[in-house]
User: What shape does this take?
Amino acid sequence: MNEEPRSRAQRRADTEQRLATDVDVWVASASADGVPYLVPLSFDWDGEALLIATGAESPTGRNLAGNRTVRLALGLVRDVVMIDGDVEVLEMDGVSQGTGDRFAQRSGFDPRTLTSHYRWFRITPRTVQAWREENELRGRNLMREGEWLQ
Assistant: This one.
């Protein structure tokens, strides 16, 4: 691909579209002693934060609750969105009925119906980067310190 690089405005629009329509995200976390863990999980986006659910005692659940930070990746190798975010840990009753219903409808999975101990993890983006090819590496930063760049 040798297309012209997208403008920051177009990259942001593409990123917001992907957040609104994609169903799954790669979730990278690390244990307290630095052991990395990577898993795909379903998510919902409310315009401000991503909501995921996983087992409280799973490696991802323990890592997110322990570190309260995460790296997420959306898309393909040649059209990627990287998000570093802060994690809020919520029990299953910690989100509204409507929020849980929206997650279930979007993902096709309702963790509220499980008997095992699941938690919600609300991830607020702190940094966002998006690029397709080498010619988009420059200008890939779309958000810093939780604020979209102009």
Observations:
- The chain has a mean pLDDT of 96.
- The radius of gyration is 16 Å.
